[in-house]
Amino acid sequence: MNETIRNLWARAQALWGRLAPAQKRNLIIATGAGIACLAAVLWVVLRPHYVTIMSGLDDKSLGEVQQALEQMKIPNQIVGTSIEVPASEADTARVQLAMQGLPKTGYYGYNIPNSFGMTDAQFNIAVLDALQQSLSQTIESIDGVESAQVHIVLPQEQLFVSQPQDTAKASVFVQLGPGVQLTPAQVYGIQQLVAHSVKGLSAGDVTVVDQNGVVLQGTAGTSANDVSGVTELQVRQQLEQSLTSQLTAGLDQIVGPGNAVVVVHANLTFDKVESKSHTVAPVPGSDTGVLTSTQQIRRSTVGSAQSPGGIAGQATSNPGASTYAGTANAGNNVTSTDNEVTNQYDNNYTDTTTVRDPIQLRGYSVGVLINSNGTGVNPQVLRQIRSFVTSAVGAATGQGAVNSVSVVAVPFRANAAATSVVSGGFPWWLLAVLGLAAGAGGIAYGVFRSRRRQAVPLEDQVLTAAEASLEPAQLSEEERLREQLARLAQERPAEFANLLRTWLMED
Predict the structure, then answer these.
(1) What is the CATH number of domain 246-271+356-412?
(2) From start to end residue, where is composition biased (Low complexity) (predicted)?
(3) Domain boundaries in the chain?
C-alpha cells in the first residue's frame, strides 16, 4: 500500500515538473475554483431550508413570536415583517404558536401556487385550495389527530357599499384516534391557527367537529376551576366516551369484537361551593389566652385630717347630739394611692375559605351486555368480566361517591343484513355476486366446448402434415403414428397437451 502511494506521488511530481509555469498557474486557479464551487454547492444543499410561517407582523408581534420560538428551541430568522423557520419545523411551530394565541397581528404564511396562465378567479380558488390543504396537514401533526379537513368560506364582494358585508367562516373536521379526546386548549389552538390564516376570520367563526359529529369547544388556559368555555354536557360526554372506549377495547379481547355493549353514565355535579369558617382555639398551656394589651392607672392624693371634736362652748349642728368640751387638735398630712391595672387577653383563631372544584365526580354507573350466543360465556366468565370492569372504573372517591357495575349475558339478535335476508329475500349485493358467478361459469363452459370441438380436426391436420413429410413405404402404421406424435410434442407442446386431454376424456 505504501509502495503504491509512493509511486503515485512520484508520477504526480514528474507530471508537475513537465508543466510550464503558465500551465501550473492555470491548474492552481482551476483547482481553487472547483473547490470553491463544491463548497458553495454543499452549503446550498446542506443548509436548512427556511420557509415563511408568518407575515405582516409588527415589531411587538415579531418579538413575541421569536421569544416563543426560542423557548421551543426552534431556529428562526426575521425577514422584514415575516418570520421563517426550517421547513421540517414549520408545522410544529404553527400549531404551538396558535395554541398560545400568537400572533396578535399578521397572518400565517403558506406556499402559493404559480399564477402564470390563470385568471383571477382560478388563482383565488387555487390559493384557497392550497391554504385548506396546508392547514389540514398542519392540524394532522397534532397528537391524536389521524386526519383533518378544513373548509373555508370567504365572503363575496358586494357591488354597493350600503350592502351588508358577510364575514368569513371556516369548519374543521378531525378524525381522532381510538380513545383520543382533544383538550379545550388544543381545540382553541386549532381555531386560532385557522383564524390567523384567513383575513377577516375570527376564532369564534371556526367550528371544530370530530368524527362523532360532536362540536368541540375550545378555551384558552382552561383549568379545573374555570369551566366557562366547557359545557356540562361536553365534560360528561368526554368522561363517558373515554371510559366506554377503554372498557370496549378490553372486552373485545375477552368475548370478541361486537359481542359486548358498554353503557356508561357519569354522575357529575357542577356546583361551585365556597365555604368560610372562623375557628377559635385556646393557647396551649394557658387558661387565660394570649396577653394582647395592658393598661395601668395610678392615682395619688395628699391632704390634712381634722380632729373629731368641735370648738369648745359651741353647739353642734346635729340636734340631740352630745357636746363635748375640749381643745382643738392640729391637722395631720395624709397621702392615699390608687393603682388600677387592666389586662386584655385573646385566644387563637383561624379564618379558612374553601372553594370546591366545580366538577365533582360522584361515581359511575356502568352496564355491560355480553352476547351469550356462541361466545362460551358462563357464570365464572361473567364474574371475571365484572371484576375487570370494577377495576377499570376504579374506586369511588369523595363524599357520597358510589360506583355501580352490572354485567348481564343475553342473546344478541342477528344484524340488519341477516334480518333482511330472512324477511325480505336475498339482498341486492348477494344477487349481484351470484349473477357474476353464473356468468363466469357460462363463459368457462363455452370456451371448454369450443376447444373440445376443435381438438379432432386439429388431430387430422397434424397427422396429414406429418404423413406428407415421411415416406409411407419405409415405416409401418404404428411407427409412423409414434413419430408424428413425438414431432408434435417437440414442435407444438400446447396443442399436443390439448390432444392428449381430449383422448383421455373420450376414453
Answers:
(1) 3.30.300
(2) 342-352
(3) 2-46, 52-155+167-232, 246-271+356-412, 428-506
Fold: same for 52-155+167-232 and 246-271+356-412: yes
Burial 82-112 (b: 16+ CB within 10 A, else e): bbbbbeebbbebbbbbbbbebbeebbbbbee
Q: In this structure, which amino acid lies at residue 412?
A: F
61: cell is 408581534
Q: Residue-wise pLDDT tens for the chain (507 aa)?
A: 577 888 888 888 888 888 888 888 888 888 888 888 888 888 877 777 888 887 777 788 888 888 889 988 899 988 888 888 888 888 888 888 877 777 766 555 555 555 566 777 777 788 888 888 888 888 888 888 888 999 998 887 655 444 455 788 999 999 988 878 888 888 888 988 888 888 878 888 899 999 888 888 877 554 444 444 456 666 777 788 888 888 888 888 888 888 888 888 888 776 666 777 767 676 676 666 667 778 878 777 776 655 554 444 444 444 444 444 444 444 566 677 777 878 777 777 777 777 766 677 778 888 898 888 876 778 888 888 888 888 888 877 766 677 888 888 888 876 443 443 333 444 555 555 566 566 656 665 555 555 555 544 544 554 454 444 444 444 566 677 777 777 777 777 777 777 777 776 665
In this structure, what DSSP letter does residue 226 have? B
What are the beta bridge partners of residue 337?
A: 300
Flag whether the pTM goes above 0.85. Answer: no
Neighbouring C-alpha atoms within 13 Å toward the C-beta of 210? 22
Query: Scanning the structure block, which residue is given the C-alpha cell 410544529?
Result: 92
CA distance 223 to 268: 17
Burial 364-388 (b: 16+ CB within 10 A, else e): bebebbbbbeebebeeebbeebeeb
The CATH class given to the 52-155+167-232 domain equals alpha beta
Q: Which residue has the cell 383533518?
A: 148
Partners of 506 in the beta sheet? none
